[in-house]
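Reply to dn_fold:

You asked what the input looked like. This is it:
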Amino acid sequence: MRVLVIGAGAIGQVIGFHFQRGGAELSFLVRDRQAEAARAGFALYPLERRASERHTPVRFEGFGVLTDQDAALEEAWDVIAVCVTSVAVRTGDWFDRLVAKRGSATLLLFLAGPDDEAFVRQRDVVPVWGMLSVISYQAPLPGESLPEPGVAFWVMPTGIAFSGPPAELSKVQGTLRKGGLRTATVPHAPTATAFAGAVLDKTILALQCAHWSFTDLRNDPDLLPLAVEAMRETWALAEANRGAKTPFGMRLLRPFMLRFVLRWSSWVLPLDLEKFFRFHYTKVAEQTRFGVAAQLELLDKAGIPHPACSELARRLPPIPRS
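and this is what came back:
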């Protein structure tokens, strides 16, 4: 199997790593300025290992590195995995050219924006969708010490969920599983993401309003209740757009449950979650604001009242400018 991964960031490296370990002939398509670093190979830090091994890098190399999309698409690929942000997918016409010239390749997408599925559907393509149920980041986090910079990652116990045409889905999942990646199958990954993603998204917005402090967020009398109400508004949008009911367990969610998770996360996760959120979501602030604006627009169009979502958006601090 020949696999082309577009984007060699934290997610692209994790997906590419498991494709390669599963026996795929792997190449990355990156920008010119990233090519030299990619050709030198990457250091990965799988956090699922024992604590004594987590600071030992795993070398990831032996893949092709391409910088010219049109030339890359003249080759035959079995899978093309798009591992860039929603903002990047909408920048220029490269995604339209990819769809037009991909040949028989399976398109694998990891997009989680509120209107990403509609954006893709307009291009008359049926991809394999993947849910981003993995924490993956450029390590070390501030204050950490590692032998060399790299990407640390932790796959959630449920594994990364996929949906799509059965034959193409089997091809993707089979190779990734052979490469050691836990996977699951869901009826429709974008729908599952719409519900589960609301929990993470609104918690992150509330944390950002609390200046990235778990303690301040837990102790604020308003922010977590506001976040839960914003989740309910977002779930109402997902129900209206997708004809699916909010999962029962999510409907039971209460602010005190989020307080419990925030308090005990450092004891059960193999990383400093508070530090990760601050580091990662500060970097992708533009993507976050894009998603917030898009979701408010969709709520307006659907005629769904959204005072909590609007209030969270209003409270967000300005994006720091370097």
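The chain has a mean pLDDT of 94.
Hope that clears it up.
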